[in-house]
């Protein structure tokens, strides 16, 4: 499973949206309507899925899906 697939899986679990609804360049807040509480749930889900530490302010709802994937890849996620 790719990083992108795993991130989409976490989004699906938290937001109950289908993978095909997630566009790579959509901003999380504007494109997917993610609020602060959902963002916290996403960060927790990503921490568990990848077994990595993510600082509270590292991932923001102003990021796009691709930016989230890029941040995870800089942490060595494959």
The major beta sheet can be summarized as: none
How would you name the CATH homologous superfamily? ACP-like
Q: What fold name goes in the CATH topology slot?
A: Non-ribosomal Peptide Synthetase Peptidyl Carrier Protein, Chain A
Class per helix and strand makeup? mainly alpha
Give the overall average pLDDT. Answer: 92
Instruction: Note the total helix count.
Output: 4
State the total count of DSSP E strands: 0
β-strand percent reads under 5%
What is the 3D form? globular
Query: SSE order in H/E notation?
Result: HHHH
What descriptors fit this protein?
78 residues; mainly alpha; 4 helices
List the helices and strands and how they pair.
Elements (H helix, E strand, L loop, with lengths): L2 H13 L12 H5 L3 H15 L14 H10 L4
Helix pairs in contact: 1-3
